[in-house]
């Protein structure tokens, strides 16, 4: 007796970044799904001299997995809107899944699939619609965020929600660690809801548009990553975690004799004007209030940053022109010693 062949749902996946890879992988390994195509961003010039071509994490996954499994059609349009109709004709998807792609998805793709076009978005919509919800959740000091799966529309992240799940944001959470956490939650959530969605068992929930907030790529520009004289210890901690692994929080160094109103961290005058990138920091318990400038100190083998309202220990940093090293290897940047331990 012949086995009944299960009809699989044809899915077109659209995504680019590391966040998208676990979602794509779960879809590709699902028994009820046929992955018929993947759309990702074109290869881009990388390296100091822009002499190499870098592939998106999604493309890398497709090329690696296609050696073991059925080969998947890969599309890398410069502008998706110019090639959307052709991609739809070639793939004829029942469902489109979008995760961290980097271009607007055109109307023809949103309207075509029988089971709609779904987006895996990392925020509890309608809060933080837009391109960079994960670093913004950290910058805003959220203790929780989440993954939402809305039905895509021509507007930005405003569609009805078919599923959502909360995620805790740990005190030491970075955008890098939150991306890994959220991508796995998003993949599990999507797979858990898809069959119910396609069977008509899920009633989408409209968003409350009056509560919508937005974030754009400009919110995490290199300029926004600069540490300011007015930043509190908590502000600095959030910036360093939110802007890791890109663009990395930074500050100019200035000498002890420079105007205290200048933006920058007071340090050894020998390094005045140099840029210091800070990768990892620890907020300390002891407070040192009402000092309206940032200043470096050394205490034993620890590099300490005094902020407007408290102390922080720099655990990992990089001076312009030098290597990324532990803060203990950069003690020469500080002029003064702490008279007593600021914590611990």
From TrEMBL:
Q: What is its EC number?
A: 2.1.2.9
What domain of life does the UniProt record list for this protein's source? Bacteria
Formyl transferase N-terminal domain residues: 10-192
Q: Which GO terms describe its cellular component?
A: cytosol
Tell me the first and last residues of the signal peptide.
Answer: none
Q: Which UniProt keywords apply?
A: Protein biosynthesis, Transferase
Can you tell me which residues bind (6S)-5,6,7,8-tetrahydrofolate? 123-126
Q: Which SUPFAM superfamilies match?
A: FMT C-terminal domain-like, Formyltransferase
**Which InterPro entries does the entry mention?**
Fmt, Formyl_trans_C, Formyl_trans_C_sf, Formyl_transf_N, Formyl_transf_N_sf, Formyl_transferase-like_C_sf, Met-tRNA-FMT_C, Met-tRNA-FMT_N
Q: What does this protein do?
A: Attaches a formyl group to the free amino group of methionyl-tRNA(fMet). The formyl group appears to play a dual role in the initiator identity of N-formylmethionyl-tRNA by promoting its recognition by IF2 and preventing the misappropriation of this tRNA by the elongation apparatus.
Enumerate the catalysed reactions.
Answer: L-methionyl-tRNA(fMet) + (6R)-10-formyltetrahydrofolate = N-formyl-L-methionyl-tRNA(fMet) + (6S)-5,6,7,8-tetrahydrofolate + H(+)
HAMAP family referenced in this protein's UniProt entry, alphabetically: Formyl_trans
Please name the NCBIfam families in this protein's record.
fmt
Query: Which family, according to UniProt?
Result: Belongs to the Fmt family.
Domain Formyl transferase C-terminal intervals = 220-331
Give the protein name, as stated in the record: Methionyl-tRNA formyltransferase
What Gene3D superfamilies does the annotation carry? Formyl transferase, C-terminal domain, Formyl transferase, N-terminal domain
Q: Name one GO molecular function term.
A: methionyl-tRNA formyltransferase activity
């Amino acid at each position: 007796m012949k086995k009944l062949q299960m009809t699989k749902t044809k899915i077109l996946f659209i995504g680019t970044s590391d966040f998208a890879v676990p979602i794509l992988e779960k879809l590709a390994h699902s028994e009820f799904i046929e992955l018929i195509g993947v759309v990702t961003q074109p290869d881009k010039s990388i390296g100091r001299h822009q002499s190499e071509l870098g592939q998106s994490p999604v493309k890398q996954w497709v090329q690696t997995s296609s050696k073991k499994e059925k080969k998947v059609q890969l599309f890398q349009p410069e502008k998706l809107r110019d090639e959307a109709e052709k991609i739809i004709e070639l793939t004829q998807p029942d469902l489109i899944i979008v995760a961290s792609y980097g271009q607007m998805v055109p109307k023809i793709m949103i309207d075509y699939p029988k089971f709609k076009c779904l987006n895996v978005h990392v925020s509890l919509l309608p809060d933080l619609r837009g391109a960079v919800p994960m670093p913004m959740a950290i910058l805003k000091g959220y203790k929780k965020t989440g993954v939402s799966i809305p039905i895509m529309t021509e507007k930005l992240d405003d569609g009805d929600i078919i599923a959502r799940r909360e995620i805790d944001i740990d005190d030491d959470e970075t955008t890098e660690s939150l991306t890994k956490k959220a991508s796995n939650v998003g993949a599990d959530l999507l797979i858990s809801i898809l069959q119910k969605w396609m069977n008509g068992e899920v009633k989408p929930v409209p968003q409350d548009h009056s509560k919508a907030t937005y974030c754009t790529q400009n919110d995490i520009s290199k300029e926004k990553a600069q540490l300011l004289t007015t930043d509190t210890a908590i502000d600095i901690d959030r910036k360093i975690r939110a802007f890791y692994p890109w663009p990395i929080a930074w500050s100019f160094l200035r000498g002890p004799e420079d105007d205290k109103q200048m933006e920058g961290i007071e340090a050894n005058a020998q390094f005045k004007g140099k840029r210091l990138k800070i990768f990892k920091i620890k907020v300390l318990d002891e407070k040192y209030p009402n000092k309206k400038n940032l200043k470096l100190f050394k205490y034993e083998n620890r590099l300490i940053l005094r902020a407007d309202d408290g102390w922080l220990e720099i655990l990992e940093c990089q001076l312009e022109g030098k290597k990324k090293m532990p803060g203990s290897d950069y003690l020469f940047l500080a002029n003064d010693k702490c008279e007593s331990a600021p914590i611990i």
